[in-house]
Structure formats: C-alpha cells, structure tokens
Write a structure and sequence with these properties.
By secondary structure, the chain is α+β, with helices and mostly antiparallel strands. It has one domain (4-143). Helix content is 49%, strand content 18%. It has helices at 13-17, 38-50, 54-59, 81-89, 92-108, 115-134, and strands at 4-10, 30-34, 64-67, 75-78, 138-143. The protein has a five-stranded antiparallel sheet with strand order 2-1-5-4-3. A hairpin with a 7-residue loop joins strand 3 and strand 4. It is globular and about 35 Å long.
C-alpha cells in the first residue's frame, strides 16, 4: 500500500487540519512525498538537528497531532517550532550531515534510503521551513 505524504505551510493547527480528507490545495505551499514513517522521521530529524532523545520527544508528544486519523481518513500533524527553526537555519553542510545520518538510522531498522533521496527530502523541508518562517507560519504534515 502506498502512502501519500504532504508537508505544507499553514498559519495554525486549525487551518492545517482542514485538508484532513483532501490533499493541501493551492492555498498551502507543499512538498509531496511518499512511503516512509513520517512520525518517526520527524522525531529523528529533530534529534539530529537540535538534540534530545527519541524517547523524550515521543513522550513530549512530538510530532503534535492536528487531526487524528479514523478508518479511512488521514493524520495531520505539526512539526515543532524548534524543528522548524532548525530546518530554516540549516546550511548545506548541515543538511548533508543530517541526510546522511538519517540514512544510517533508517538502515539500522532495515529501511533503505539512498543519500540523494534523503538529501532531497530534508532539503525540501529546509526550503519549506524557510518559507514558513518568513510568513510566520508553521510546517504541518498530512499522511493518508
């Protein structure tokens, strides 16, 4: 089964939850991706970029849920302001390090990402987080 993942910019959690049944429309700047565990990845990216442990971030409720999925619906969650700020500030060297570290983390769990794909995902998020920051908004994710 294929999973569609859309990271997008929204002004708040309520606005972010609106595309629960539909993908974010033209009102939302978005980054469409697919087929990886987003909730796990978001926590891993935050650990890699700003520190903390996986267990601590999960216990703190990261990523924060904007709208929870039911049977045929999707999940909408928010990236933490701390992660968004770190992504927006990441330079190319840091971006490459995080992407490579993420590939290594996923490999330990038997999931294969090549470095170029990981770099593209993280790089897309860096651009999206920068845009969100300029607009004083947040980055959210729809999975469905």
């Amino acid at each position: 089964m294929s999973t569609v993942i859309d990271f997008f910019v929204a002004p708040d959690d309520t606005s972010a939850a609106m595309p629960l049944r539909a993908r974010p429309g033209p009102a939302h700047e978005s980054l469409p991706l697919g087929n990886f565990d987003v909730e796990e990845a978001v926590v891993e990216w935050e650990c890699l970029l700003v520190g903390g442990t996986f267990a601590d971030l999960v216990e703190a409720g990261e990523p924060r849920t904007d709208a929870d999925r039911d049977e045929d619906e999707c999940l909408v969650c928010a990236l933490s302001p701390r992660l968004c700020a770190a992504l927006a500030a990441a330079g190319e060297s840091r971006l490459r390090d995080v992407a490579a570290s993420w590939v290594d983390l996923r490999a330990r769990d038997g999931e294969v990402f090549d470095a170029q794909t990981a770099h593209g995902i993280v790089g897309g998020l860096v651009a999206l987080a920068g845009s969100a920051r300029r607009r004083e908004q947040g980055v959210h994710c729809r999975v469905g």
